[in-house]
């Protein structure tokens, strides 16, 4: 019968006392926060005796009323573990201290209800259970480490790694190693005092991801829009873990863009292949066309000079003496040829100048286009922004004695 009653009491406590505890906002110092986080962790694991020790030490450092409520909750739950009535009495005492200290607390209703439930349970305990105090146990010496990484482990004095929990140790100084996958390990020397719990918060620093990139020399590398250097890299890039947008860009080439999901401490090898842009290829074609026109213009200029020289000789002869009809026809042919070749050379050189200017604009303004980093909630990448050279127009120009090109550009 007694066992059945104890089981009912334990069940009532397990279901009646909710997991409501003081929040981190109730703790205003780093040292007290380490004890509070230890208490919350031990409470969640069902180690309520350790939770009581941690919450009590946190309260000694910060005296926040919410911690009194957390201590009461832990004592109440501990009764379900060991069946000792003094845990219930301690819970009632801390509930009352909470009500007296925090007159406007949000958990006052829960504290009142808790006191009534526990007093009803205590009134139903057999008299011999109420009057017989349980022997007090000497408190153990413990070290507890907290950190922001849930799956971190601790190793004390070189022992095998263990999950984060309050660990019994001997009094004195101990070397504690805290480590977790993807984080730099941290070592601390922690002094453990006789019969006390020593809690310490050890933040872990994230390892970066290491990215090696091969690609054209001189190409610029950006990650999420931030410049990271130019190829070839002297060492792998160290990039914060997560989803990152990486660009490799070089003038005259289409930008290489990729999205990487980088893990902490992981290495990635990336080969960036860049293809020439149509604009750069067009500029090369125009440069070739300009060179051809220059060559043609020079040839026609020489032919014009040669025809002019021959026409000059016949004209001087015509002034001194009568020339034959054949020589007169030759003179007219050379004179007309000089004019035609001269006009042709002028037109060819004008076209060459137009091609050259257009090729220069296309070549100079062929800058890389970088796609802005995509937000996590974006469904697709944003379209690339416009280049500095927005529009080029080329129009043939033909008139009396004139052949050439006119062009315009809009930026």
Describe the protein's architecture and organization.
It is a single chain. The protein has 411 residues and is α+β, with helices and mostly antiparallel strands. The chain folds into four domains: 2-131, Tetratricopeptide repeat domain (Serine Threonine Protein Phosphatase 5, Tetratricopeptide repeat), CATH 1.25.40; 153-201, no CATH class; 209-271, Immunoglobulin-like, CATH 2.60.40.1120; 278-410. Helix content is 45%, strand content 22%. The chain is built from nine helices and 16 strands. It has helices spanning 2-16, 30-45, 48-62, 65-82, 85-101, 108-124, 127-131, 278-320, 325-364; strands spanning 142-146, 153-156, 162-163, 167-168, 172-179, 186-192, 197-201, 209-214, 220-223, 226-230, 237-239, 242-249, 256-262, 267-271, 391-399, 402-410. The strands form five sheets. It has a four-stranded antiparallel sheet with strand order 3-2-5-6, with no helix packed on it. A four-stranded antiparallel sheet has the order 10-9-12-13, with no helix packed on it. Strand 15 and strand 16 (402-410) form a beta hairpin. Helix 3 runs antiparallel to helix 4, helix 4 runs antiparallel to helix 5 (85-101) and helix 8 runs antiparallel to helix 9. The longest helix has 43 residues, at 278-320. The N and C termini lie far apart (93 Å). Residues 1-19, 377-391 and 395-403 have low confidence and may be disordered.
